[in-house]
Amino acid sequence: MTTKRKPGLRRFLYENSLSIVMLGLFVLFLAGQLVFGWMEYNSSHPLALSEYVTSGEFIEATFENWESEFLQMAVFVILTKWLRQWGSSESKPPYGKDAVDEDPRKHRHDPKAPWPVRKGGLVLRLYEHSLSASLLLLFAFSFGMHALGGARQQIEEGRAITTLQYMATPKFWFESFQNWQSEFLSVGALILLSIYLRERGSPQSKPVAKEHWKSEDE
Q1: What is the number of other CB atoms lying within 10 angstroms of the CB of residue 64?
Q2: Is the pLDDT of residue 204 over 50?
Q3: pLDDT > 60? residue 1
Q4: Sequence-ordered list of residues with C-beta below 8 angstroms from that of 171, at least 6 positions apart, any chain
Q5: Rounded to whole angstroms, how far apart are CA atoms 95 and 98?
Q6: pLDDT exceeding 90 applies to what percent of the chain?
Q7: Residue ranges of the alpha helices (H) in the chain?
Q8: Among 47, 79, 80, 151, which is least packed by CB within 10 angstroms?
Q9: Structural domain spans, the chain
Q10: What's the predicted TM-score (pTM) here?
């Protein structure tokens, strides 16, 4: 069956609608965080909006949340390579091989394969772990910015402290752990709920008529 693709701009918007909407929501909610955070902060610390953007308060609050998201995604991507949840749409089948386990080196001469697959060697070795590596790098960057923003916030409040000193405080780790635990709770809930519950039309759900204890590929 040949699928007719939409022309021009309509095709671009349709084929990329999920990422466009997600990024649009990100910008919308980040703007909301900025405006309302500034209004709250400005009630006790008069500051221009342009100054608030670079304040420790805004930097710390923003990256504190980003770090937990990237950590959760990186760990989830890595753990689902080896760990299983029977019946969950978020897990590979508990037994046998899955398509994602196939050795890409078998497709080295496939002209449609991504360039790193055709190149092979170290390039392919890096490419076949590039998703988790990118997420871990984004986590490390956000983790560092959280520490930097928190230390700056302390300095703005009159406390002399370095970024490393701030990272050794209970406050820094409290901020981190309170976000990390919620991320892993939400992922764990999705893994377990997807065994029994369905969302028709969503690739994050098994088919509605699928048996509870059957994986999507079984």
Answers
A1: 21
A2: yes
A3: no
A4: 150
A5: 9
A6: 81
A7: 8-15, 17-42, 49-53, 56-79, 115-119, 121-127, 130-156, 163-167, 170-196
A8: 79
A9: 1-53, 54-218
A10: 0.90
